[in-house]
Structures are given as structure tokens and as C-alpha cells.
Amino acid sequence: MAAPKKGRSASAQSRPGRSLALILIAIVALTGGMFLSGHSTPRLGIDLAGGTSITLEAKNEPGQPNAINKTNMNTAVDIMNRRVNGLGVSEAEVQTQGDRNIIVNIPKGTNSKQAREQVGTTAKLYFRPVLATEVSGGAATASPSPKPSSSDSSKDKATDKATDKATSSSPSSSATPSATATSQGRAVTDALKADATPSGTASAKASASAKASASTSATPSPSGSVDPATAKLQAQYAALDCTDKAVRAKAGDGVKPTDPTVACGKNSSGQWQKYVLGPAEVSGTDIKSAAAVFDTQSAAGWKVTMDFTSGGSKKFADITGKLAKNQSPQNQFAIVLDGEVVSDPYVSQALTGGNAEISGSFTQTEAQDLANMLKYGALPLTFKEASVTTVTAALGGEQLHAGLIAGAIGLGLVIIYLVVYYRGLSIIAIASLMVSAVLTYVIMALLGPAIGFALNLPAVCGAIVAIGITADSFIVFFERIRDEIREGRSLRPAVERAWPRARRTILVSDFVSFLAAAVLFIVTVGKVQGFAFTLGLTTLLDVVVVFLFTKPLMTILARKKFFASGHSWSGLDPKRLGAQPPLRRTRRASAPVDTKEA
After folding, report:
1. Beta-bridge partners for 261
2. Which helix (H) or strand (E) holds 360?
3. Do 581 and 572 form a contact (C-beta atoms < 8 A)?
4. Dihedral sign, CA of 262, 265, 267, 268?
5. DSSP assignment of 88-124
6. CA geometry: angle at 233 spanning 227 and 239, to 5°?
7. pLDDT of 48-82, one tens digit each?
8. Is residue 329 reached through a cis peptide bond, with omega within 30 degrees of 0 on the bond before it?
9. Can you tell me the distance from the alpha carbon of 330 to that of 128, in angstroms, rounded to the nearest whole number?
10. Which of the pair, 121 or 339, is modelled with greater confidence?
11. How would you write 260-301 as a 3-class SS string?
């Protein structure tokens, strides 16, 4: 029964080439993928590559004197982190400074400009009904003349851009500036009255809108019949010039979601359009997910799709059902992001599918930016850029240079120790270190575009520490082999008997190192995570290299005469190791002598 078992063991031991071929194929495949991807070097963090440091200062919101607190600041940091990571910009540091400042360090890279534009954007999204609109700087109108097309409720498309939006001017409304201002005020007043109708019915709004359009040239009503809030909004709308960037930035500033407001947005012709908008009916918090999608079925190009929560779906169905009964433009709703209208689709019936789309001649970058901000939520506070500083890589480069010198010295000392103490066995150790170094480099280069990994100074330190971890695995294996030789066994049986015990010790040691790296990665933030990640990665690679390279290579070399004969420079010389003759041989030799004497 023992013979077949021995045969199977010998068969398994005689094929170490399979393991070596497997790891060689893996190295070739990973290296080829690295060059084909165009990323032949690892991405560098801000301390090595330079980047941008932004200081954001929280601003007090009107009517919310206590909004700037620790909870909101921490929430803002978390959202900014998720936004930046959503763009693939890893190693970005977002942390609070004091009670109202947030420091954002963005490394130089492909998406660093996008990250800077998004990181402080509030991303407050509201769906507001359109009460009146016109091209900024054009003649007043409460209703564009083109008839809106119907939206397809079966597809739940609420975002067919009003591409044929235009401005129609009656002679009376464009005759003089005073007449224009009068028609603007009358249209806004009647639209607001319709929106505030107690019954809240869409037909009342439509009727009021029609009356407003029909009476554009009529004599304005006495100022005493307009309440102060409506008069203020009327004046804001008349004075709103959306072609002025400074004016656009202040439009609707400080307005509550429950109040009407004015806003600006670009129409399909690229002209600035100004709006009077009713109270918000749906907010960004009602959005469950968002994604940028390329529309291959139409010429719209890139668009943003949104899925609502259950509560948001009901709100969206209610508002689209009401707007569908109105006349243009009051059958439109404006999608307002941070005070600017990004889309103003119109509807002809209630949309109950729980999803919507935002289209409007977006580029891929614009669509991805918008989807990213909607997906990760709005900031609880409004921020302004207090300062923007460009960080150079000079200091980090000097530190990296010093770190690499220290690593080279450490590696050199390890190699000298291996050569002096283990002699011929040092060939196996050095070859294994080289394989581990190649795998580490290639995987780090591939992880840059894959998950946004960026190499920083702590990560370099983690890689240097890994040299000791890898060398420790070789030493454990070599010492187990030597122990077997000291007991009188020849090299080939010694290698196979030493491996199970060495393997168990190596796995336990690497598991402890990996567990420490995982805990460090979870409980820390910023650059320390780079150290923990690199330490964990190199620990896993140590297991791969020892099992698939070191052990098979040792098995092959154990068959060579130089090592098998115990050459003095092999590192396995029985005499130098103090090996004792096997006891069973002594017994066999002494037994015949005792018989003859008897």
C-alpha cells in the first residue's frame, strides 16, 4: 500500500516546472497588459507628482445661522471624497481645518481639473415648474410660440429638450422699453397668481397664463394690487440679464426651495434664457442613482439618467400630471442645479416610471460630472474657494530619492547577508526577490488606471518594508531544509520534508502581516492608507512567489549535483551544518558484528 502513495508523491514532486511556467505566464501577461494599456509607470501621489491644494470656506445660509457645525462639515468631507473617488482620482486628501474650512489636496493627473471643478460644487438639485420664460435680452413673452411635442410616457422620458424654444414678440410688447417691462411684469404677476390659486389645479394656471398672454398690451394694474413678494420677484425678473456672469451667479441667491425664484439657463440655440420658477416639487434627495449614458437612438448625444426613490417617484408623477394639463411654457419643469437651469423639458401626461433623463447637448465630460454630483448627493453647506495653491513635486522628489537610496542600501545588505550565510542558496533568494519586485511594479502600474491607485511616499516605505517580509520567508524555508540535513537526510527528501513545516510557518507569518495591513487601511485615512495598501499587496505577492517560484526552483536545484552533493559553496554542506550519521544506518552496521561475536 505504501508503494503507490510513494509513487504519487514522487510524481507530484517531479513536476515543479508547471508552477514555474504558470508564474512566468502570469508575469508576461501582466507586463504585456501594462504596455498595451499605455501606463508603463505607476501613478504618483501629490507628494511625488505635485498637484493642487484647495481651501474651501463654508458660508452661512440665509435663515440657517447654525448650519455650519461639525456634523455638516464631516458630511461635506465624505461627499467630496466620494465625488473625487468617483472620478478615479485616488490619493486625494479631503480633511477639515478649523471649524469652517476644508482642505482638498488633488494630485496632478488626468481628472484633476474635473475634480477641482466638482469638489466644492454644492449640487443642490430641484425640479421646479416653469411659470414664465424668455430669451435674456429679448422681448417679453410668457409663452413661446412653438407647440411642444408629446413625451413618451411608456419610456418615461421627461427630458426631451425644448429645442424649438423661441421668442415671439407682439408689436405692443416690443414697441418701447417701458412697454416691454410692463408686459414682463404682467406675465410674471398673472403666472404667480395662477400658481398660488387655492384650488391648485393645473387648469387654473393654464387659464391665467392664457389671460396673461392675451392681455400683454393692456394697461397695467395699479401697483397696490401686487403684493410685495410678487413685486420684488417681478422686478428681479425684469432686471435679470443672464448674459452677465456676475448677475447669473446671484440669481435666486438665498431663496428657499418652497419659494418662487428667478433663474438662468442656456437654450438649445446656445442663448441665455431667463425663467420665473415656482416652488420646488422634487429635490435631489429624491434621486436614488444617476448615470451618464450615450443615446445611440437619437442625435441628443450624452444624457444623464436618474432613478427616483419611492417617495420621489410619487412626487415626480404628481408634478408631471399637473403640468401636463397646462399650456406652454407652464407645462414645462426646470431642472435646476445650484441655481442654474440645466434642462427644461415639457410633458403631455403624467410620468410614473420612477425615472427621468436630463439631456441638453452635453459632452461626455459634462454628463459624467453631472451624474457624479447627483449620485453622491448635494453638499449640506455652501462653500467658496478661499485659496488655490499649486503644489510642486520638488520636495517629494528629494524625499523619494532619499527613500530609494535607503531601500537600495537595505536591499544590498540583505543580499550580502544571503550570499555570506547561505552561499549557493542565495541564488534562489535573489531570483525570488527579483520576481517579487517585477510583480509588485507591474501590478502597481496596472492599479493606477484600474482603481485609481497612486504611489506616494508612505507606499514606497511599505514596499521597502516588504523586502524584509519576503526575505524572512526564504530564511524560514532554508532553515527547515538545513534542519532536515542535520538529521542525516539527503537533499531531495530534506526539501520535501521541510516544505510542509516551512509552508505552515510562512502562511501564519504572512497572515499576521496582512491582517495588520488590513486593520491599518480600515482605521486610517490619507497617506497612511497608501502604506497599508502596499504592505498588504506585497504580503500577498510573497505567498504567490514562495509557492509558485521559490519552492519549485528549490526542488529543481536539489537534483543538481552541485547542491545534491553538498558542495561547500552550496550552503548545504552536511559537515558545515554539523550533520550526524543516521541512527538506523549505525544499527544495520553493528548488527552483523554482534552476530559473529556470538
Report:
1. 277
2. strand 355-362
3. no
4. negative
5. T-TT-EEEEETTTEEEEEEESSTTHHHHHHHHT----
6. 135
7. 777 788 888 888 766 666 778 888 888 888 888 77
8. yes
9. 11
10. 339
11. CEEEEEECCCCCEEEEEECCCCEEHHHEEEEEEEEECCCCCE
In angstroms, rounded to a whole number, what is the distance separating the alpha carbons of residues 187 and 182?
A: 9
Cell reading at 51: 498637484
Instruction: State residue 553's pLDDT score.
Output: 92
The amino acid occupying position 448 is: G
CA distance linking residue 598 with residue 592, whole number of Å: 10
Phi-psi domain of 483 (left: phi exceeds 0; alpha: psi -120 through 50; beta: other): alpha
Say how many CA atoms lie within 13 Å of 86 toward its Cβ: 24
CA distance 459 to 468: 15
Tell me the per-residue pLDDT of 169-207, one tens digit each, with 9 for 90 and over. 333 333 333 344 444 555 555 555 555 443 343 333 433
* Cα dihedral sign, 126-192-131-135: negative
Task: Report helix, strand or coil for 168.
Answer: coil
> Could you give the CA distance from residue 160 to residue 332 in angstroms, rounded to a whole number?
11
Residues 6+ positions from 259 with CB-CB distance below 8 Å: 279
CA distance 283 to 270: 26
**What is the C-alpha to C-alpha distance for residues 515 and 518, in angstroms, rounded to an integer?**
5
Q: What are phi and psi of 151, to 5 degrees?
A: -95, 155
Is the model's pLDDT at 542 over the cut of 90?
yes
HSE at residue 40, side-chain half, CA atoms within 13 A, is 4
Decide: 45 and 106 in contact? Cβ < 8 Å.
no
Beta-carbon-side half-sphere exposure of residue 113 (alpha carbons within 13 Å) = 3
Question: Does the model's pTM come out above 0.85?
Answer: no
- Who's near 326: CB < 8 A, 6+ residues apart? 202, 205, 206, 209
Place of cell 394656471: 205
Following DSSP, what letter does each residue of 532-571 receive, concatenated?
Answer: HHHHHHHHHHHHHHIIIIIHHHHHHHTTSHHHHTT-TTTT
Alpha carbon distance 577, 564 (integer Å): 14
Cα angle 276, 274, 255; round to 5: 50
Of 62, 434, 93, give the one whose Cα is nearest residue 254: 62
Query: What residue has cell string 508547471?
Result: 18
Rounded Cα–Cα distance for residues 383 and 485 (Å): 71
